[in-house]
Amino acid sequence: MIGCLPVSRLLLINPNTDTDMTQRMVAYAEAQFAGAVAVEAVTARFGARYLTNRVSVTIAGHAVLDALACARGPFDAVLVACFGDPGREALASLCPVPVAGMAQASLIRAARLPGRFSIVTGGPEWKPMLVNLVQAMGLSARLASIRILPAAGNVLAQGGAAACREIARACNDAVREDGAARVVLGGAGLAGFAARIAPDVNAPVLCSLHESLHEVLNLLSRPVLPQHPWQSMETVGLSAELRRYLASGATVRARQD
After folding, report:
1. Is residue 50 within 8 Å of residue 153, measured between CB atoms?
2. What's phi and psi for 158, nearest 5 deg?
3. Residues 119-138, buried b or exposed e (16+ Cβ, 10 A)?
4. Each residue of 31-77: pLDDT tens digit?
5. Could you give the CA distance from residue 22 to residue 11 in angstroms, rounded to a whole number?
6. Who's near 70: CB < 8 A, 6+ residues apart?
7. Tens of pLDDT along 219-249?
8. Of 46, 97, 93, nearest in space to 70 by CA
């Protein structure tokens, strides 16, 4: 279990439209927090069931902002619970509370440890997107490799023992052939697999959801920096909730306990 601060509230946004996946991530988070952090989850109201390419990730960036506008605050932190972190930077510009992305947070934690790390995830179109993300984070020198499995993460999530063997094989290839000191399993669909395959992999395996939840706790322990005032904007064609949110110049409120 994670030891943490007095009860805080986390907004977990699932940019995928799969509500079952949202519930699995909430259950995982609540088991880790053991009541010390209250989790409210919002699932994207539109877009792909599971993000697999640039188009779906771009749409999800809009859906994440829409989900923020629909959420019931106040919150102490926000987690974009998808390994591509769609909309995270825009979200952070609106929120006076810490905003973490599943990829950003888990890769930062992997890079803090000695040696290089590899990423293993599912879906062939993710590789160039993750290369760009790692480069933008300034972590290219710390990356040993990106190993991509043919099936998307939501398919692997239903694969049972066969999926475990496939994921473990990719992790061991990253360690043996690419020199990885540890492997990050990327994606909401692979949440929970790290513990299942750890005995079969010759290096530590990090779960991106698990690591991002830990990083949220680190963020909650730090003082929040002053936020620049958000300027309202006129918009056309957005949902009523997001239109009102942007027009008002409102932000997610931090708790004032």
Report:
1. yes
2. -100, 5
3. bbbbbeebeebbeebbeebe
4. 998 888 999 999 999 999 999 999 999 999 999 999 999 998 789 99
5. 12
6. 42, 45, 239, 241
7. 888 766 656 666 777 889 999 999 988 887 6
8. 46
- Tell me the one-letter amino acid at 112: R
In 10 A of CB 39, how many CB atoms? 19
Dump pLDDT digits (tens) for 89-112.
999 988 888 999 999 999 999 999
Question: Of 47, 50, 45, which is closest to residue 84 (Cα–Cα)?
Answer: 50
Burial of 2: CB neighbours in 10 Å, binned 0-12, 13-18, 19+: middle
Residue 105: phi and psi, rounded to 5, are -70, -45
Closest C-alpha to 157, from 13, 25, 14, 2 = 25
Q: Where are the alpha helices (DSSP H) in 137-205?
A: 153-156, 160-178, 193-197
The DSSP letter of residue 230 is P
Tell me the pTM.
Answer: 0.91
* Predicted confidence (pLDDT) at residue 3 exceeds the cutoff of 50: no
The phi and psi torsions of 115 (rounded to 5 degrees) equal 85, 175
Give the pair of three-digit tokens for residue 233. 């904007």
The residue assigned the tokens 């990090």 is 206
Q: Which two tokens stand for residue 158?
A: 């239903």
**DSSP letter (8 states) at residue 228:** P
Cα gap 38→232, rounded to integer Å: 30
Q: Give φ, ψ of 172 to 5 degrees.
A: -65, -35
